[in-house]
Amino acid sequence: xxxxQAGHSSVPHLTDLRVLAWAPTREECLxxxxxxxxxxxxxxASAGPGAATRELDTVIPALRDEDLLLGLAxxxxxxxDAGGEVPVRAEVAAVPGGVRARxxxxxxxxxxxxxxxxxxxxxxxxxxxxxxxxWHCAVTLAV
Length: 143
Description:
Blueprint: E1 7-12, E2 16-23, H1 26-41, E3 42-43, E4 53-61, H2 65-83, E5 85-95, E6 98-107, E7 112-113, E8 120-131, E9 134-142
Antiparallel strand pairs: 1-2, 2-9, 3-7, 4-6, 5-6, 8-9
Helix pairs in contact: 1-2
């Protein structure tokens, strides 16, 4: 079966935001999920070429794929809450005992907003795993 291209989407709900992602590999799927979280609340392209950004490497330690997805979603909320920043680019690579996320962060206030900012990660419907056409993952954020 043919693996479809990487991508993502989000589905807003009254008090939740459902993020869906898919890709040929687990790591790409995780990176797509991070991008979907950003795009659900802001337009990364609105940063413009002169926007102040900073690069950040972070390791998410986990043995289960679900814990990796949950850990990345919690990091996203930390970047947003602690620094008012969101990733406009994310790369995820496997490392022993987890994954390393390399992100380019930009201040949310410099972007055009597209939705309300999430405040918590829920474990409702958290899923990640291989499928016949690649990897799929889903996470729900409370807004």
